[in-house]
Amino acid sequence: MPALDGLRGLAVAAVLLFHGGWAGARGGFLGVDVFFVLSGFLITSLLLSEQRTTGSIGLGRFWSRRARRLLPALLLVVAAVAAATPLFDPSAQVGLRDDALASLAYVANWRFVAEGADYFARTAADSPLNHLWSLAIEEQFYLVWPLVVLAVARLRRPAAWVGVLAATGAAASAAAMVLLHQGEADVNRVYYGTDTRAHTVLIGATLAALLAPRSTGASPTAAGWPRAFRVLLGLAATLAALNLVAGVAVVDGGERWLYEGGLPLLAVAAAVLIGHVVLIPEGWMAWVLRLGPLCAAGRLSYGLYLWHWPLYLLLNSARTGLSGGALLTVRLGATAAAAFVSDRLLERPIRAGRPRGVWAGVAAPAAAAATALVVLEATIRLPGGSSPEATTELASNAAVAGQAVGRSQAPVEAELTRTRAPGEPVDVLVLGDSVGQTLARGLVSQAPAAGLKMTEATLLGCGVARGGPLRYVGKEQAEPPACPSWPQHWSGAVIVHDPDVVLVVVGRWEVVDRFWEGRWAHLGEPDFDRYIEGELEEAVTTASARGARVALASVPYYSRGEQRDGGRWPEDDPARVDRLNELVATVAARHPEVVSFVDLGGKTAKDGRYARSIDRVLLRYDGVHFTPVGGRWLAPWLLPQLDALGPEVADDPATSTTSTTTTTTTTTRPAGWAKPD
User: Fold this and answer.
1) Using CA atoms, how far apart are residues 515 and 512, in angstroms rounded to an integer?
2) CA angle at residue 226 from 220 to 231, to 5 degrees?
3) Integer Cα distance of 472 and 327 in angstroms
4) Domains and CATH numbers, the chain
5) Gap between the Cα atoms of 673 and 99, Å rounded
6) 429 - beta bridge partners?
7) What is d(CA 421, CA 666) in angstroms, rounded to the nearest whole number?
8) What are phi and psi of 611, to 5 degrees?
9) What's the pTM value of the predicted model, to 2 decimals?
10) pLDDT (tens digit, 9 = 90+) per residue, 287-296?
11) 3-class SS at 516?
12) Which residues 6+ apart lie within 8 Å of 491 measured at CB?
């Protein structure tokens, strides 16, 4: 049925355009649902046809055909991704081994459920194997559904029984999606779950049972059916096609109605469209879907789907210098080339029956084992100095907030003078967000050698801006509940640790769009700038409340990740960082007796731009946070500045004596002390 190849071509095109960030394919993820319906229809049709022809179903032959069709290209892609591990974003590399092994075992969808992966929002670097969740659902269907069909194969009217079971299962799955999504904060559980997505495949299986020919060899066409039925079917298919096109064009994956009945209805629309082109193969819709380019794309659809996502991540804007339509064109061309080569040199020969005999039984497990070994070897060590504990955007702050102490206490009157005993280290406290935390992790091991004692009491996911929802990597999200009380958290940390110097590292949550005073605002708007400046003033007051000097760090540039079309996210705009650093410098200059401006942003930039690495040292593992090795690289530059801000060393009493009296001379740093270079 060439028209079904054409439908495959349209479905894979929707997915490729969606992942490429094309504005006209906002709902292109629905192409996966079309694939699911098609799979359910075709596999069930094959099983019922075999049952009619032979009176039974050969499970070994069925699974062998599926293995020949699916495994070769999958093993090649997984092995290629594993071998190319160093080329992917460092934070995407962590967990890649588990992603690969889960993909080989066809349980990737449950792996992503367990990890809390978000298909629609890039709050962490994308796994190059993230798209294989859908293959896992299909393979689970291929494993279980033939057993169900075989169980009813000897009953009277087995097609009817298959239809009843498929329809019942689809209804149960759709109900599970609705029930599980009620009250859920995100859609990931219902989007990835086999139980909540099975309805799409089972709707296709129901269609196959309805269209099963009544006698062996008959074609399920409507040639002899009443004209009125054919007209109504044509109208229904046209309406279904318009709904699917509209969905691909405008639907957003986070819309609640999709998971409260919308996705099942769109799957029914896909089934109606399939039914029309099968029953009326001479109709206009089947004619359109038989067009050469669509059929060609459909025949390569499996390879196109497998290769596109890792290639998209490799061929990004940072690596190619392209964006928008030019970048999408390069990505599509590379994907098509990889799929074509894989099809001609690997997939077709194996589908044609090579190798044969005993070698066929050995080749598949041997290839799978070899791929697993490649995965294990390629991912045995995390490259670039990234660390497992630094791989997630830590946005939940409840645990950290619960550790804050002394929040209800009033600020303590500042101590006007501080000294420290000879040999006593300068006590440095790091306050700020998760960027400050990752920086401190790299500095802490170097601090003792520099004469410092360093601790951190950062509040993850919180800077100094607060109040209302915010937009991050294109998704609106609530502010973590601990953020509004950051002054109390900081104050408690200052009371408990009583530091000599406080290093303040904030910025990530100040450059995002925020819903502020009834509207969306961002840095660069005068009123919002004044608000941020006021928050920085409060940060200085809180950090210095017990007489500590404050090292106010400038904000480094960010490059969290590209939008799907290669463009940058608004919060990664260098102009916002530049404006924030102007405010930081203004506040520091206003309090020269208390605050020193530390140009962290300038030190970690290259030619005034974001630098992922300097001197072959990976500084930022995800475009925002510092790597441990990056912190160690910064230590010789930063730690002496912090040491210079510490109290003067008191004179040793043993060397400050007269003939009859011992005196201790205390020296303190005068107001207006010189800031370090």
Assistant:
1) 10
2) 90
3) 23
4) 2-383 (no CATH), 417-655 (3.40.50.1110)
5) 54
6) 455, 502
7) 10
8) -125, 120
9) 0.74
10) 999 999 999 9
11) strand
12) 406, 407, 409, 411, 542, 545
Provide φ and ψ at 613, rounded to 5°: -145, 150
* Cβ atoms of residues 51 and 37 within 8 Å: no
- Contact between 546 and 495 (Cβ < 8 Å): yes
Q: Supply the angle between the helices 434-443 and 628-644 in degrees, to the nearest 10.
A: 80
Query: What is the greatest pairwise CA distance in the chain?
Result: 125
Q: Indicate whether 157 pLDDT > 60.
A: yes
Q: Could you read off the pLDDT of 522-549 as tens digits, one per residue? A: 999 999 999 999 999 999 999 999 999 9
**Dihedral-angle region of residue 198 (phi above 0 means left; psi in -120 to 50 means alpha; beta otherwise):** alpha
> Which residue do the tokens 């697993």 mark?
372
Average pLDDT score, the chain: 85
Report, as an integer, the average pLDDT of 566-586.
94
Sheet containing strand 426-432, edge to edge, reads: 452-456, 426-432, 501-505, 549-553, 595-598
Q: Which two tokens stand for residue 344?
A: 């001609």
Indicate the DSSP class of residue 60. H
Report d(CA 546, CA 499) in Å as an integer. 8
- Regarding beta strands 613-614 and 419-420, do their DSSP bridges make them parallel or antiparallel, or are they unpaired? unpaired
Which DSSP letter does residue 568 get?
Answer: B
Cα–Cα distance measured from residue 651 to residue 655, given in angstroms and rounded to the nearest whole number? 8
Length of the chain as a residue count: 677
Alpha-helix residue ranges (DSSP H) falling in 379-525:
398-403, 434-443, 486-497
Q: For residue 605, give the amino acid letter.
A: A
With CA atoms as reference, report the closest residue to 46 among 280, 169, 212, 199.
212
Contact 546, 415 (CB under 8 A): yes
pLDDT digits (tens, 9 = 90+) for 268-323: 999 999 999 999 988 889 999 999 999 999 999 999 999 999 999 999 887 888 88
The continuous run of DSSP H or E covering 64 comes out as helix 59-83
Q: In terms of pLDDT, which residue wins out, 91 or 513?
A: 513
CB 479 within 8 A of CB 466: yes
> Which residue, 134, 109, 98, 100, is CA-closest to 19?
134
Give the integer Cα–Cα distance in Å for 277 and 566: 37
Q: CA triplet 524, 530, 533: central angle to 5 degrees?
A: 100
- Note the pLDDT of residue 361: 59
Q: Which helix (H) or strand (E) holds 190?
A: helix 188-192
Distance CA 304, CA 335 (A): 6
Distance from C-alpha of 335 to C-alpha of 578, rounded to nearest angstrom? 38
